[in-house]
Amino acid sequence: MDCPPLIAPGPPLTGGQVSRYSRHLLMPALGELGQRRLLAARVAVVGAGGLGSPSLLYLAAAGVGTITVLDDDRVDETNLQRQVIHDSDAVGRPKVDSAVERVRALNPEVRIIGRTDHLDAANARELLEDHDLVLDGSDNFETRYAVNDACVALGIPLVWAAVYRTEAHLTVFWSAAPHGQVATDLRDLFPTPPEPGTVPACGDAGVLGPLVGQVGSMMAAEAIKLITGTGEPLLGRVLFIDVLRAAQREIPLAPRADRVRRARVAPTVDPAAGAEPSTTAMISAADLRSRLDSGGSPPFVLDVREAHELTDGRVPGAAHLPIGTLTGDAGSSAGLPRDRDLVLVCRAGPRAHLAATALRSRGFDRLLVLDGGMLAWPGPIELPTDRSGDPTNGAPLSPSPQESA
Q1: pLDDT score recorded for residue 404
Q2: Does 3 qualify as catalytic in the annotation?
Q3: Known catalytic residue: 346?
Q4: Is the pLDDT of residue 148 over 90?
Q5: For the segment 242-256, what is each residue's pLDDT rounded down to a tens digit?
Q6: For strand 42-46 and strand 133-136, is the pairing parallel, antiparallel, or unpaired?
Q7: Cα(first)–Cα(last) distance of the chain, in Å?
Q8: Helices (H), 206-264
Q9: Catalytic one of 176, 202, 275, 336
Q10: What is the pLDDT of residues 330-381, one digit of tens each?
Q11: N- or C-end of the chain: fewer Cβ atoms within 10 A?
């Protein structure tokens, strides 16, 4: 469903602006009014790194009138593989300084503001309150939840993305979305941050540079759509991208039914303190192992990683369905039990939560997520085999020890 424009149009275009933005003006869906809305917009980009780099460049090129970039880090040589707003001469400099210079060189008409403040729960609302929308390109969970909760309190949309190696998630959160649109925020997808150290950072796991560029550009496109009221923004939908398979899938996202929509953060409140319980309960690795070893009626364990990831082993007896099989309009949940606990497992946890969201939309209610994923599993593990029909090979669910127990 189309969304109304976020911004009222600014003053008429000058002759120079007509020339610079002529390719926008030729588009019936955007046109002169859309360009005037872009020039009047105030956008905050959190992070001048892998996602922030293409977002900043395309927002500036599109003529977004005021852009604030927030980052307290410095350019490192390892950043240059993907953070394309910086160059070799910028190594050692504050990322904000490098980004501001590049944006000004690209489009001198844009008002670009650099902030080196460390954004956290105490100052997020103050730093973001004078903006129409926010793009989150940060690289840590503390910042992500602080940004989300501030946007909820301010009632402004948040374009959000996350990248892991060769996979990415992209969506738009807006707790105060217009009537007819799905109003969600980050806590509808991931209610609480993972425990520190359970999800590897880019420096530990690696990331494919072009994927970051692709996703950051899509974030800029979502922002332009929201500002101008062009097209259908990713509200109530999480886009999952697997660049190795050149595949994209959508996962529906709805507000959690167990909470009231409200402003949840004050400048002095830590969003991790007193966080509301997840609609998808977590189970620790120790508790899962105990339940599997205790006999009786153990939980059904479903590994939602890709088939190639199972070479590292899986929870013994776990069935396998890649997350892409579970998500999207044509997603399949055939063979999954509804009369026993269903434990979802991925490498670190995020994909398992996405799978839980998809299954909950199909009526599954006895869902658990393995806290920390396989990174937290102490063993034993079951290694893949070459048996025909083994779930390891991504075939339809077949009998396993846990199913026959």
Answers
A1: 29
A2: no
A3: yes
A4: yes
A5: 999 999 999 899 888
A6: parallel
A7: 47
A8: 209-228
A9: 202
A10: 556 778 999 899 999 988 777 888 888 888 888 888 999 998 888 888 877 7
A11: N
User: Could you tell me the sign of the dihedral formed by the alpha carbons of 16, 22, 24, 29, in that order?
Assistant: positive
Residue 260 Ramachandran class (φ > 0 left, ψ -120 to 50 alpha, else beta): beta
Annotated active-site residue in 220, 227, 346, 374: 346
Please give the DSSP secondary-structure letter assigned to residue 275. P
d(CA 375, CA 346): 9
Q: Which class for 325: exposed (0-12), middle (13-18), buried (19 or more C-beta within 10 A)?
A: buried
**pTM for the full model?**
0.69
Q: Which long-range contacts (CB under 8 A, 24 or more apart) does 91-100 make?
A: 95/48, 95/49, 95/71, 96/48, 96/69, 96/70, 96/71, 98/48, 99/48, 99/52, 99/53, 99/56, 99/69, 99/71, 100/69
Backbone phi and psi for residue 267, each to the nearest 5 degrees, phi listed first:
-55, -20
98-122 exposure pattern, b = at least 16 Cβ within 10 A, e = fewer: bbbbbbeeebeebebebeeeebbbe
What is the rounded distance in angstroms from the CA atom of residue 85 to the CA atom of residue 48? 8
Q: For residues 366 and 178, what is the distance between their CA atoms, to the nearest angstrom?
A: 33
Amino acid at 141: F
Residue with tokens 């953070």: 83
